[in-house]
Amino acid sequence: MSDPFDVGDRLKKLRLSAGLSQRQLAQYAGVPHGQISMIETNRSSPSVASLRKILGGMGMSMGEFFEPETHAPGQVFFGPEALSDLTSQLGAEASKLTLKQVGNAKDHGLQILREHYAPGADTGETMLSHPANEGGIVLSGELEVTVGPQTQTLRAGDSYLFDSRQPHRFRNISDKPAEVVSACTPPYL
């Protein structure tokens, strides 16, 4: 059995290798300095949105953060076991949301995700916003999607497509899991 992934230690090592202080990274990422310290000392587990914002301050994706080794160049097909898990290491609350990526999104300029939202899962109170376009299809369950001032509960077969610069959020407010397949270009996570 492998050692558990240490989010705080990994963040600290990457920050130091980039030659950044906690304050500099916080400034580049637009987050409070204390948040970096709390994560690096494992006193706080970041939400998906928070970690993505912090990694953005170093020009790094979540895929690179969790799986620095890329898939074989030219790899075309991926079984379920070959998907890169971008979220399971973020702690108990974040584990309600699982994002698994197909291949190396950065190399292809396209991120394809299989998303699982347990009941109560939420991308976070801080709305996501990034320069991209994204869309997805709900395969099962229900998912509340907020894009700008619009909020709608999507059910199996429903889909969404929007400019990701608009603040957005995904939540499962039902008592059953929701499964989604989504795509984002350019890659965000």
Could you outline the blueprint of secondary structure elements for this entry?
Blueprint: H1 7-17, H2 22-29, H3 33-40, H4 48-56, H5 62-66, E1 84-85, E2 97-101, H6 105-108, E3 111-117, E4 133-140, E5 142-147, E6 150-155, E7 159-163, E8 168-171, E9 178-185
Antiparallel strand pairs: 1-2, 2-3, 3-9, 4-7, 4-9, 5-6, 5-8
Helix pairs in contact: 2-3, 2-4
Within CATH, the superfamily of the largest domain carries the name Jelly Rolls
How would you sum up the global shape?
globular
- Determine the strand fraction and express it as a percent band: 25-35%
The figure for the number of domains is 2
The Rg value, from CA coordinates, equals 16 Å
Query: Helical element count?
Result: 6
CATH class of the largest domain: Mainly Beta
What topology, given as strand order, has the largest sheet?
1-2-3-9-4-7
The CATH topology of the largest domain corresponds to Jelly Rolls
End-to-end Cα distance: 27 Å
Let me know the largest β-sheet.
6 strands, antiparallel
Mean pLDDT: 87
**What is the percent of helical residues?**
10-25%
Residue stretches low in confidence (pLDDT < 50, at least 5 long) are: none
CATH-derived architecture of the largest domain: Sandwich
